[in-house]
Amino acid sequence: MRNEDGQFLAKAEFNSGLHYYHHNGKPGPGVNSFQVLDRCGDGLIPTVTWTENTRTRVATLTDECLLPGFPYRTHTVKTGYAPEIMEETTWYVSLVDANGELQYTGDAYLDDWMGSYSHDTGSEFFVHSSVYRDEFGTTGQDTVIASIVPTTEAYGRVGSVNEVWDELLERTPLPPGITADQNESMLKQLACHLLYAIPGQTGGPTWDLEAEHPNIPWEEVLDPSKVLDHECNWGFTGDRLPTIPPVNGNPDDASPMVHAGPDTAGDEGSQVRLDGAASDDGGRPETEWSYTAGEDVDAGTTCAFTDKSSVDTGFTCTNDGTFTVTLTADDGVNRPVSDSAQVTVKNVAPVIRVTGPEEWSVHRVKDEVSVRATFTDPGSNDTHTCRVTWDDGQVSTFSATDGACDAGHRFNHAGMNTIKVEAADDDNGSDNGQTMAVVYDPRAGLLTGLGTVDGSAFTVAGKYPSAGSTAPAGAVALSVPTGDGRLKVVSTKLEWLVITPDGKAAMKGESARHGFLGYAQAGKFRGVVWPLTAGDVPPEQPLYDTSPGASWDIDRAEPKRVTAGAMIIDSGWLPGLPQLRGTGALPDDTLPRT
Question: Cross-referenced Gene3D superfamilies, in alphabetical order (predicted)?
């Protein structure tokens, strides 16, 4: 059970029949008992409710802690009940407050089987026998187990197998539903133990006959060469000394209880919180976390615990995937006890930052334009691929180096190129950024035109005087409506002129107080004006824009149709240009509002 914040509150286990003895090889809490691991001192009192035949029983425990400063405590609830034949039981754990009011209930009602049990010190073959249900192997499925604690006289008495089997069934009958094959397999396991078990060496402290073991031929059961492999349990090896478990007695020291917490999830490179718990009847056990990576985890992935000896800790991995975390408790007396949970670590996409070329930077055609982009990724075990789309039909794909995507490219034609840079990890996570580079070609011809569009008027003329020119010559006059009247911008200070092979043109320049952009193509024009106090390039919301919200890229600028006037865009270079009066920026002229 956990509270609303996910904090561990309590956990319970049911020990059916000789289940505890079967698993731990030593006396435990007793036949058909419960063990409860509780976060003590939290004001919540654990109770266990279960059924015995037709009656319901309730055990109320205590919230007091055994050790100062240690918030966990193990409780044992002994039912004192061992039916001759297995019985179904329903049980659950709940937490109540000091007034007895119910606060939390465990995983609803749990259905189990009360194991049968017999005890006879005068028996020639076995002192204790028990039949119960338990997990079989590593599959998690249930099976019926008949378990006996043999006497010294039983070893080597294979000729008495039917006699021992009959006594077992008389004292602790098998439940209905056991098939003929299962019955015969259990009999063969008993015969093998009688013949080959060696006290203190093989066979373990109990002879456990699992119904799920296949019914193999007698020659494999009794062939000494085969026994070396299956050891009378078709694969199970026992190495514990035989002892006699008491009936609901007090063990000298029971095994710890441990809880790894619920399955959880988090991001790679970030701490996932693990909320485990462990306690022992002897006090605080030593605990240690470990982990194993699933098949979906890439090679080279590592994980670390913030404190692997603390039940509450953090878990951080360098890559995504599924991991099994295991909390092991050791009281120094019994075999260590472990519990596991699954942690699903999710991939986190890289985050990219494009730092070059600078936005709106100007480059001459066929000069190299260098891209610089860096990225971060919390998955330090990821590998990354860079992809640069240059906006002229060319794409560069290559492996990232030291968290960077650096590349160079030469543009063959003028344009306003939106360069997109993408960094992708090997788990399909990606991020991208972009920048725009202006590429001019001084041989790319002439732009001239005049007209009106959406209430604004324009006159433009510009070209590069020679193939070696770095700035165009020409003049621009724009008259645009603003909230304070019409603004007239006149200038011969041009920064660049772009004329593309498909007949689009763009020009940027400035007057004394304003910057401007003009986009043109056959029969269309877009004018943009902004105050230079807002910067050298147009802000997101300029003072005036014929096509507000459209891209600055010449290919997506969306100029509007000219209502009156004419436009000439010549993409071939024409030497010479008529001399224009003035060489600098002309003053702005704000006309009165009309």
Answer: Immunoglobulins (2.60.40.10)
Q: How far apart are CA 433 and CA 439, in angstroms?
A: 20
Residues 78 and 142 in one domain: no
**Helix/strand/coil for 152:** helix
Q: Confirm whether 252 is domain-assigned.
A: no
Supply the CATH number for residue 266's domain: 2.60.40.10
Q: Which residue has the higher pLDDT, 103 or 225?
A: 103
The total domain count for the chain is 5
What is the spatial distance between Cα 49 and Cα 115, in angstroms, rounded to a whole number?
17
What is the Rg, in whole angstroms, of the alpha carbon atoms belonging to the chain? 42
Cβ-based neighbours of 28, under 8 Å, separated by 6 or more: 15, 20, 21, 245, 251, 254, 255
Q: Please name the residues in contact with 459: beta carbons below 8 A apart, sequence gap of 6 or more.
A: 449, 450, 475, 476, 477
**8 pLDDT above the threshold of 80:** yes
pTM of the model: 0.75
Same domain (yes/no): 455, 559: yes
Per-residue pLDDT for 48 more than 90? yes
Distance between CA atoms of residues 393 and 418, nearest Å? 12
pLDDT digits (tens, 9 = 90+) for 374-393: 999 999 999 999 999 999 99
Do 361 and 273 lie in one domain? The reply is no
Residue 226 neighbours by CB distance under 10 Å:
16
pLDDT band at residue 234 under the 50/70/90 scheme: low
Task: Kindly list the distances between the CA atom of residue 171 and the CA atoms of 83, 126, 158, 188, 455, in Å, as whole numbers in the listed order.
Answer: 11, 11, 20, 19, 106
With tokens 């020659």, the residue in question is 219
10 Å CB burial of residue 177 (0-12, 13-18, 19+) is exposed
> Is 424 in contact with 480 (CB distance < 8 Å)?
no
**114, 140, 172 - which closes a domain:** 114
Does residue 297 fall inside a structural domain? yes
Which of 477-493 are b and which e, b meaning 16 or more Cβ less than 10 Å from the residue's Cβ?
bbbbeeeeebbbbbbbb
Residue 299, class by beta-carbon neighbours within 10 Å (0-12 exposed, 13-18 middle, 19+ buried)? exposed
Sequence-separated (6 or more) residues with CB below 8 Å from residue 594: 485, 486
The separation between the first and the last C-alpha atoms of the chain, rounded to the nearest angstrom, is 77
pLDDT digits 0-9 by tens, 66-92:
888 899 999 999 998 988 899 999 999
As a residue count, the chain comes to 594
Instruction: Locate 226 and state its tokens.
Output: 């085969």
Q: Which of 34, 59, 56 is nearest to 46 (CA)?
A: 59
Q: According to the model, what pLDDT value does residue 108 have?
A: 59
d(CA 35, CA 23): 15
Q: Which domain holds residue 417?
A: 351-440
Q: Is the same domain home to 578 and 464?
A: yes
